[in-house]
Amino acid sequence: MSRTVLGCIADDFTGATDLANNLVRAGMRVVQAIGVPVQALDAQADAVVVALKSRTLPAREAVAQSLAALRWLQAQGAQQIYFKYCSTFDSTPLGNIGPVTEALMDALGTDFTIATPAFPDNHRTVFKGYLFVGDVLLNESGMQNHPLTPMTDANLVRVLQGQCTGKVGLIDHQVVAQGASAIQARIAQLRSQGVRVAVVDAISNQDLMRLGPALHGMPLVTAGSGVAIGLPGNFGLAPSSTASALPPAAGWQAVVSGSCSLATNRQVQAFIASGRPALAVDPLQIAARQAAGGDVVTDALAWAQPLLAQGPVLVYSSADVQAVKAVQGQLGAEASGHLVEHTLAAIARGLVGLGVRQLVLAGGETSGACVQALHINQLKIGPQIDPGVPWCHAQSDAAVGAGLHLTLKSGNFGSDDFFSKAFVQLA
Ligand code: ADP
Q1: How many CB atoms lie within 10 A of CB 285?
Q2: What are 391-425's pLDDT values in tens digits?
Q3: Do 201 and 301 belong to one domain?
Q4: Would residue 190 count as lying in a domain?
Q5: 317 lines ligand 1 (CB under 6 A)
Q6: If you write DSSP's letter for every residue of 328-346 in order, what string do you get?
Q7: Which atom of ligand 1 is found nearest the CA of 409?
Q8: Which of 185, 209, 237 is where one domain is finished?
């Protein structure tokens, strides 16, 4: 059994694979656990990512789950803990990033950590504490309209300070550009000023590689997935292609999409435009069908079954901002979200029951619900499809035998042709 040196806690499922992907590419063998395992790790892994679904939970529950994950990771021997959140710093107005960070710090007995969602490969950069998505500020990127976690302020020092009891500071780009020793000197200075969490600027992978050595030995790191590229070196590991090997793919192909993010909506449109079969489901229709004694899940599977032999099919609830707002106005944001998640998860399980063994899941919450419905508790992380999105392989009681390949795509990740390209790459 290898030593697990890095223990990671991710606040949603797609975020966990995003982090695992970067660690694999930097040379770590990575296993992703779905939820906190009840048993000791039974695999060879340099890093384990515990995937929670805690992003939108009430803070107290998110803290309790994160602490349970911490205890399990410590029992596996983890030397450093990495709390992973979204590269768009997704949090509800009451916010979990601050409370979870502070609870982990207390549990680890440490008085300082960093925070940065920077992920330059995916055009998430932090400068002067402001988060940019591509060329625009976070609050102009579409994230201000997210169904569950609208982000209306791009200043992360301000956002995080609003969620923390301790003082939040900034390690700005001028310092980061000077390298690890300058970063460490700035950390010492901030600590002497009583700062407990420092947002770190990073606008390039070089910045993240400069940050990596400065984090050597820091008990807790909090970040998006980007910081991961600079950490394996601290444990003597270097990039290698063997870290990402998966079994060969088989079976039918399907996409299930519940993400309403801009990139996903483009991917849905591109898939439809390519002439592939696509079925839309929406919360009002699900509710109406239920009220009439019917079931959208059965309808969707009956639609998909004759099509699967010809290539990938798409079932989606993805919709634009106006449509989502209209539905939320009628059913409530949480209720409509849950309704869609449960329906898409049952459809995903049903599709695997029909013989689908290559499954693309789009949306963090959506993927979480689907993975739970498939009773998947561990994923081996494979090769990257697009930045932040690798293929994975897992065992499921719905795919007895060889298991299935799946990818958990975070809403805003992936190129427009992702839903077709992913299968081509796997083949
Ligand atoms: P992303 O990764 O883009 O944030 P998520 O799956 O995490 O995607 O979140 C999208 C949320 O929106 C989910 O809770 C989903 O159930 C909900 N949702 C999806 N489609 C609709 C729709 N048509 N109307 C209202 N809510 C929806």
Answers
A1: 16
A2: 999 999 999 999 999 999 989 899 999 999 999 99
A3: no
A4: yes
A5: yes
A6: HHHH-HHHHHHHHHHHHHH
A7: 2
A8: 237
